[in-house]
Amino acid sequence: MAGAYSSGKTKRIARDWTGNANSVFVCNGASNHTKEERQEDDYYATEPRAVKLLLSKEQFQNNIWECACGGGHMSDVLEKAGYTVFSSDIADRGYKGTEIINFLEFKEVNSMDIITNPPYKYAKEFVQHALDISVEGTKIAMFLKLTFLESQSRKELFREYPFRTLYVSSARLQCAKNGEFEKYRKNSTAVAYGWYVWVKGFKGKPVIEWV
Predict the structure, then answer these.
(1) Count: domains in the chain
(2) R_g of the chain, CA atoms, integer Å
(3) % residues pLDDT > 70 (the chain)
(4) Which residue from 109, 119, 136, 124 is spatially nearest to 177, judged by alpha carbons?
(5) Is residue 3 a part of any domain in this protein?
(6) Cβ pair 180, 43 in contact under 8 A
């Protein structure tokens, strides 16, 4: 899931680039792209299998916040696994019980781990904010492209807040525009994803594993 976050619930930050057919694929080096524009709110739902892979490796406290829940594809898997899930998003995409919240304006998190697929162009801000507002020991899992490891600005983020584990997906996982998995299921993807897991207060060396 992804959404364009800004101050206020109804305002949107203007797209910093105008995507077309190639935008989700070409920027990641893919050649199998289609001619359509990038989703306005950067909403690309996560294949539920990705959450199952995460849960095969990690345990979380009972209460979890899915703060960019979209159509609830991740929240449903978490609930079926026995977790109590608080689902929120900046926009209502029809998922039951969604709270309309701008995550980047939220001030504090107590007794909840965070699991989400953030809007990628604000992924760094989501990670930074989640860590800033969480208490020591909070576990934060973000589903992100492997290219998130790149760039000078994120280098500084990793230096201040090293993630504990990166679980690289050994098979390609799909993120579907507007949650329309059937529409995009026939398309392969050149985008590689992984789960980045932070524990607030962790200061060791990151570990890379494969799922």
Answers:
(1) 1
(2) 16
(3) 71
(4) 119
(5) no
(6) no
pLDDT digits (tens, 9 = 90+) for 18-47: 344 443 333 333 433 444 554 455 666 788
The 10 Å CB-count burial string (b at 16+, else e) for 135-160 is eeebbbbbbbbeebbeeeebeebeee
CB atoms near residue 10 (< 10 Å): 9
Cβ(129)–Cβ(122) under 8 Å?
no
The pTM of the full predicted model, rounded to 2 decimals, is: 0.77
- DSSP for 150-203 reads -SHHHHHHHHHS--SEEEE-SS---EEETT-HHHHTTS-----EEEEEEETT--
Q: Which residues touch 150 (CB under 8 Å, ≥6 apart)?
A: none
109-134 pLDDT tens trace: 989 999 999 998 899 999 999 999 99
Q: Note whether residue 5 is domain-resident.
A: no
Question: Is pLDDT at 176 greater than 70 in this prediction?
Answer: no
**Gap between the Cα atoms of 1 and 92, Å rounded:** 12
d(CA 57, CA 210): 10
Within-domain flag for 48: yes
Residue 134 belongs to domain spanning? 23-210
CATH number at residue 161: 3.40.50.150
In a domain, 195, yes or no: yes
Q: What's residue 43's pLDDT?
A: 65
Alpha helices in the chain (DSSP H): 23-26, 48-55, 73-80, 123-133, 152-160, 181-184
Residue 9 has pLDDT above 70, yes or no: no
